[in-house]
Amino acid sequence: MPSGSSPAPAAAATSPPPTQTTPAARAFLAAYARQHAGPVRALATAAQVALGLPPHAVVLALLYARRLLSASVGRLPAALSTPSKVLLAGLVLADAHLCDATVPMRAWAAATAARGGGAQVAAIKAAALDALQFGIAVDAATYSRWMMSVDAFFQSVASDDGSDAAVVAAAASETS
């Protein structure tokens, strides 16, 4: 390299293109949310309370869960066979992506009553990474749109009659 010149910049990391949600995917997501809203809500709360996960990690986890469901409509891997496992995958990935001191797998297992312990949590994380093709990068514009969707969701919940209609509506929305 000639003196005074700097090395070429490394290739910028790019995030995968946003998932386009088809009408069939929206219907699947709405039915999924309608059926499983309670356990998923309980798991997200447990992650914050028992493990001290920051709220922005939970928001990112919900985006990862939505990506998993959108990418795998009707054909989730066996390790992601329940809504709680899908959200757990999102929470573990968000924790790993955002936090310097990540929650150990055995702590995730204890907090979520994972039957296979830390090994099951590791298998869930691996299946999620595989299903997302390791595409966990989220650009600023996508995150901003997602935050607006989450904000709209919480506003609708605040004025909701207590039903899960807001959860179903958020799951069916077309945000990336």
Tell me about this structure.
The chain is mainly alpha-helical. It is built from seven helices and no strands. The longest helix is centred in the N-terminal third of the chain and has 29 residues. The radius of gyration is 18 Å and the shape is globular. It starts with 22 loop residues before the first helix and ends with a helix.
Structure keywords:
single chain, 176 residues, mainly alpha, 64% helix, disordered N terminus
Which overall shape is indicated by the principal axes computed on the Cα atoms?
Answer: globular
Give the terminus-to-terminus CA distance. 43 Å
Unreliable sequence segments: 1-21
Helix run count? 7
Q: What is the averaged pLDDT score?
A: 73
Q: H/E element string?
A: HHHHHHH
Helix-strand category: mainly alpha
Question: How much β-strand is present in the residues?
Answer: under 5%
Helix share, percent: 55-70%
Count of β-strands: 0
Rg for CA atoms: 18 Å
Largest sheet: none
